[in-house]
Design goal:
Elements (H helix, E strand, L loop, with lengths): L1 H17 L4 H17 L1 H24 L2
Helix pairs in contact: 1-2, 1-3, 2-3
Organism: Sphingomonas albertensis
Protein name: DUF533 domain-containing protein
Length: 66
């Protein structure tokens, strides 16, 4: 369950990075989920860290007025 949530967040962030969204973000999330599962707990930690860092940067930029 947690792995699916993390993969959805990673897919959303990857879709935002490319400027696309929706289906392409979902596909990237599914691919990322497969890779993270194969890496085991380390993959989940890396994926969660990636999504958290992107959310932190976005929040920081919003507060700075960019």
């Amino acid at each position: 369950m947690i792995g699916r949530i993390i993969s959805a967040l990673v897919g959303r962030e990857m879709g935002r990075r490319d400027g696309s969204g929706g289906a392409s973000g979902a596909v990237k999330g599914v691919v990322a989920m497969g890779l993270m599962r194969r890496m085991g707990p380390l993959g989940m930690i890396l994926g969660g860290g990636y999504a958290a860092k992107k959310a932190y940067d976005r929040n920081k930029a919003r507060k700075a007025g960019y």
